[in-house]
Amino acid sequence: MKNPMDIVDAQLYVRILENVDRAVVAIDSEGRIALFNPAAQLYTGLSERQSLGRHFEELFSGQAALLYLVRTAVQDGRSISDDENILLHRPSAAPLPVSASVSPIYTEDGDQEGVVLIIRDLSRVCELEEAVRRSDRLSTLGTLAAGLAHEIKNPLGGIKGAAQLLAMELPEGSHLTEYTGVMVKEVERVNGIIEELMDLARPRAPELTEVNLAKVLNDIVLFQKEAHRGKDVQFSLQLDPSIPPIQGDENLLTRLFLNLIKNAGEAIDKKGTVQIITKVASEYHLNQPGERPAPLIVVEIRDSGRGMREAELDKIFTPFYTTKSRGSGLGLATCQKIVSEHRGFLKVESTPGKGTAFSVCLPFLR
Ligand SMILES: Nc1ncnc2c1ncn2[C@@H]1O[C@H](COP(=O)(O)OP(=O)(O)OP(=O)(O)O)[C@@H](O)[C@H]1O
Ligand SMILES: [Mg+2]
What we know:
Blueprint: H1 4-19, E1 23-28, E2 33-36, H2 38-44, H3 48-51, H4 56-59, H5 64-76, E3 80-90, E4 93-106, E5 112-121, H6 123-169, H7 177-201, E6 209-211, H8 213-227, E7 232-239, E8 246-248, H9 250-266, E9 271-286, E10 294-303, H10 310-313, H11 331-341, E11 345-351, E12 355-363
Parallel strand pairs: 7-9
Antiparallel strand pairs: 1-2, 1-5, 3-4, 4-5, 6-8, 9-10, 10-12, 11-12
The site of adenosine-5'-triphosphate (ATP) has 21 residues, from helix 9 and helix 11.
């Protein structure tokens, strides 16, 4: 007879397998799938019905790295794992970066009864690594550019002074004053860009106060509606009313969201939408040693504009990368810096021809 404790344990095991955020796949001694937990279904895009009873060679055909791990564990009766370099290919979604480990299952008598494959989703880890790499790259570039900017500012001042002197020497009403005017204006524009660049490279501690995000975003939208009056751009705000004021630098946060919302509007050619959504992220927490994990607040800026290809997404945070005739290309580099200064991170997803979504994740610090 079964011990009642076994039943309790069995239920507990089932609950654990159903709730754990790792894909757990049990493969019997014949090589057939005996268990395929909900996370496995989510990661692979295959249902329990599509997977149970099938041979692993068939289910994972084309997934060489996974097959290698499973075959090795089956043949050698030992545990094996790969902590990186595995891309899980899925029927109708982008490949998922994962780590995997396979261990043999032994009966009480010491016979091998099959293996268990455990897969961990690394996509969030990869996103975070990418954000860190980006901000590292930015700080190196920023330092270099700031040195250069400093050298350019002096001769620029000379050119401007000379153009102004020239203007004074010109006879009253000369058509040439138009040219000296252009010279002064353009020098001022370059100067503005350089100031912005030096600002980007300057280390600076944000001045923290309580910031009401909803107010900041509402004000920007009001202002941006005017800026895009020539086109049919619908702005909409979906703000979670439960988000309390956050600790942040109001000036910097305003610049951050203004840059992103401005870009979103500019990505729209004639007609489109810009949605601004705030929410509390349940899937991320900021962990700092000695502090309680801080929840993250996410501000999403979604536009239905031109979108970008993968290759373009790689470049947009680089200072001076721009596709606009009057753009400085410093907007997103500045955004990246402001987000890092607030100990948050930035994510971007885009589909050419469909639109772009930038997500700003900020820790909710009290
Ligand atoms: N929402 C978006 N949709 C499509 N492309 C975008 C979007 N946001 C940014 N980009 C691309 O990234 C480039 C860099 O953006 P960034 O804000 O850094 O500079 P910019 O907008 O060109 O210039 P500035 O911000 O000084 O006006 C843009 O020129 C554009 O090509
Ligand atoms: Mg911009």
